[in-house]
């Protein structure tokens, strides 16, 4: 499996995960906890706590938390406005969803940083292997005294620069350069 396939696979996995998270957010209205009517609230003597928390875990390992709040009616028989009571559970649910999304984004950022580090490591490994292959191809089919000149020719240096760096004549550098071109042509036709 090549580097390109690994990168495409990682991108596909991340895309599926983001799509799943977006699906979960879009169906957020269906996951809301039904509110209990006021008749189900225990009497004041038996309910000293003002809230109860219930936690549930999905089969997938997500750590979603579900909070149910049951408040006893105040000692005075004043009832809060209907809009205020309905907006509190919704705003609390939205706040929980925002916190979960922030955790998911932080986790994805960490995973993305790990993937970038891995990609950099793989790129360095590929470059090192390419240089080793180039060096082995340079030594294959050439005299040992012209190995360095052959490497320079494969890198694309001109004849005068090769002759100056390797201490050979311009004619020898031209021969080495033509040898490098012929080897490049042969390896290109073998790969096709």
TrEMBL record:
It comes from the Bacteria. Residues 91-132 form a coiled coil. Residues 29-90 are annotated as: Disordered. The keyword Coiled coil applies. Residues 57-67 have a biased composition (Acidic residues). Keywords: Coiled coil. This is DUF2802 domain-containing protein. It comes from Aromatoleum diolicum.
């Amino acid at each position: 499996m090549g580097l390109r396939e690994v990168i495409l696979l990682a991108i596909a996995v991340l895309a599926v995960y983001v799509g799943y998270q977006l699906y979960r957010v879009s169906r957020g209205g269906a996951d809301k906890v039904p509110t209990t009517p006021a008749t189900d609230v225990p009497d004041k003597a038996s309910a000293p706590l003002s809230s109860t928390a219930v936690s549930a875990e999905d089969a997938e390992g997500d750590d979603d938390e579900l909070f149910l709040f049951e408040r006893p009616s105040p000692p005075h028989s004043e009832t809060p406005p209907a809009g205020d009571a309905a907006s509190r559970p919704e705003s609390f649910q939205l706040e929980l969803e925002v916190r979960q999304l922030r955790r998911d984004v932080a986790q994805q950022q960490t995973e993305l940083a790990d993937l970038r580090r891995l990609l950099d490591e793989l790129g360095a490994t590929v470059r090192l292997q390419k240089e080793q292959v180039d060096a082995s191809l340079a030594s294959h089919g050439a005299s040992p005294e012209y190995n360095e000149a052959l490497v320079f020719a494969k890198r694309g240096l001109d004849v005068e620069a090769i002759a100056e760096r390797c201490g050979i004549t311009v004619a020898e550098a031209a021969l080495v350069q033509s040898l490098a071109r012929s080897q490049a042509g042969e390896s290109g036709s073998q790969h096709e």
